[in-house]
Amino acid sequence: MTFTLKKLYGKKEIRSAIDGFVTALDSPIALIDGGGAVIVGDLNANFSKYPIVVNGEVIGWVCGEEKVCAIASMISCLATQEVEKKALAREVLGKYRELTLLYNISEKIIGSLDIKEVAAIVLEEAQRGIKASSGAVMLWEEGSDRLESIEAFGPAADCFSQLGVTATLVNRSVETGRGEIVNDIVWDVALDAGQNEPPGITSVMCVPLKTKEKVIGAIAIGNIDSLGYTAEDLKLLSALASQAASAIAALAHENKLKESRRQAILFRLATQIRQSLELSSILETAVTEIRSLLRVDRCLFAWYKPAKSNIKSWESTDPDERPPEPCAERSLRHHSGHLTHLLLHTSDYWQVINEAKHPALRSLIGDYATSEVGGLASKLLQMEIVRGDDVTKLTDSVMRQFFLKQDVSSILAVPIETRLGKMGFVACANSSKIRPWSDDEIELLEAVGNQLAIAIDQAELYQQSLHSAEVAREKAEELEKTLVELQQTEAQLVQSEKMSGLGQLVAGIAHEINNPVNFIHGNLVHVNNYTLELLTVLNLYQKYYPEPVAELEAAIEEMDVEFLMDDLPKLLSSMKLGTDRIRAIVQSLRLFSRVDESDMKRANIRDGIESTLMILQHRLNAQPGRLPIQLIFEDGDLPLVECYPGQLNQVFMNLIANAIDALEEAMASGNGRESQTLPTLRIRTERVDFPPVDSDEEPLKNSASPRVRITIADNGIGMTESVRRRLFDPFFTTKAVGKGTGLGLSISYQIVVEKHRGTLECISEPNQGAEFIIELPIFQSPSQGNVSFFNRNSGVREAKSRVHHVQNC
């Protein structure tokens, strides 16, 4: 206790009270302090000693007669009152100091928006009220179970939460939620002092940073002096910790809200942007969302459009070293400040292409020259953020006048550079009032700008990929078309070789058959004449010699001469019919093969059709278990047609053979358009678009394209629409494996369409038969246009219609 009897007696009012009491008792006294020194009076051996007690502690004695005992009691009471006064004064002073400290720190913390700044304020105020050589504010590290120092001072600041005694103290304080003091620390260098241990600190005090919900960290301070920390120091540090914990928790919560809002904004914007990879849609979405989120009057996006030529490079900041500049460029340089290695030209401009604005504001979409916007261009091109809370205070007069002209009060522009090097910017502007831009808004706009740059890159990459895909698709289609053409050409070459070989074979066989048949046919005339002459002689013998000799009569009877004379002419007649038939077949084979007619020439289409029918005659006849096929050939008196006769014969062969196949399949399955009637193959030829003629048999007017039409129809099984669409595709067939190659109709289509400039169509429905229509122009070469129409088509036989019903032989 620092309170003594001597100090108490030194107070004038206390001394007067004691002296008055002594006078009233009329008894001498002596006052002795706790150390035995006499303060007042003289000691007498007969005096008794009465203690003066304050809060249980003897601070001195009153010596005298027995009645001075009352003086000892009075002094004890006065001393106790003085001690209580001092304690109360100290408490009031402490409260005042604490309140002053809390007020100061609260005022500073309220003005702070950063957690580290709050921590620095708390440590600064702690140093003012508590003696400390080191200190630290520690918070729980996110996602970890250890404390991380966010602000510290002194040489041992980084070690409070890591090593030795200090770490134990901090951990215990955080776990218990109470303040801790450790004084008179003795460091064992061998055991405790590590590489980062704070040697020399003799006192450490730690209090937790505690909110209502949990402990969020701790404040620890230490001192190298031997003076230890007291409960008053702990109380003061706890008060500071309480203020700091509330502020830090509030700021942490606010930061989380801001970050959540920022992430939500970015996610929302990114989601809406990624819903479309079309650049104009991305930019429109971006400016609309930014204006809505930041609640500004206008948000716009612009591209930088550099000049294509005559670009000047300002390589030096020394005006004397630059080439002469136009006035507009000098103005631009004057207002844009220090520019090094920056390429600018008076014809450069910024193009505003998207904006979202208040309905009352006029649109700013358009082009703006770099000289018109002042230093704005150079700053943005150097990737600097342009921030103007109040455009009237901008130092760049050109930029200031530009914004005022556009009715802009506050501007915030963030530059954007794409992966391909294109420059642009996104800007927010206020017109209704001045708007101070916060750091959070700038960071948010920067993040949105980065997101927008990524989205633009993605859109450009997407457009490039679409272009590449389109090019690849076109190449693939071209390759596929080339492959199909190669396959068709190969198939046609193979088929042509087959048909050429077959034609040569058929022509050779026809030639070899034709010679002996002609020999037989030609000699049959003579044989017939000779036979008739011999029969005449025999008749004369019978007339003039009715009764021959017995031997001759027996021979005549044995040989049945009457029968021979009657049957021999018939035999010769049938032999002539047989040779005629063989000659007709040989002629049909020669017409079909056409080996001597590979060039385009005028030919009779009817001859080709009839030769084809002659070759396929056996398939029209009745077969075992199958009815004969009725053939109806309606000839329309066709003129000569300029064509490749052999190739057209191949077309007729394919179409007629397919029609017979369809009829046979219909008869086998019982299906068909007229399953109860005779299967019928109908062939019809007719003229199309022939002009009328005058008295000289010349056309009255020129016809655009006189054509002939050949229709080959059957009442067989027909086909579905899907089959009909693919009918002329190479290698497509509906026949069983081994019965069709899928090339017949494809080659027929090429012959008619590509080689004869005609058309080949098919009309069919399931179970309704099929009808193939061929249309061919009469003239292929333009040189034929000057020849009289009927001269070009002379020599055609008269039209002849017939119905040929082949019975089963």
TrEMBL record:
Record keywords: Coiled coil, Kinase, Phosphoprotein, Transferase, Two-component regulatory system
Catalyzed reaction equations: ATP + protein L-histidine = ADP + protein N-phospho-L-histidine
Xref: InterPro entries: GAF, GAF-like_dom_sf, HATPase_C_sf, HATPase_dom, His_kinase_dom, HisK_dim/P_dom, HisK_dim/P_sf, Sig_transdc_His_kin-like_C
Ranges for domain Histidine kinase: 508-780
EC number: 2.7.13.3
Enzyme type, top EC level: transferase
Entry coiled-coil feature ranges: 459-499
Keyword ATP-binding tagged: no
PANTHER family noted in UniProt: HISTIDINE KINASE, SENSOR HISTIDINE KINASE
The protein's name: histidine kinase
Organism of provenance: Laspinema olomoucense D3b
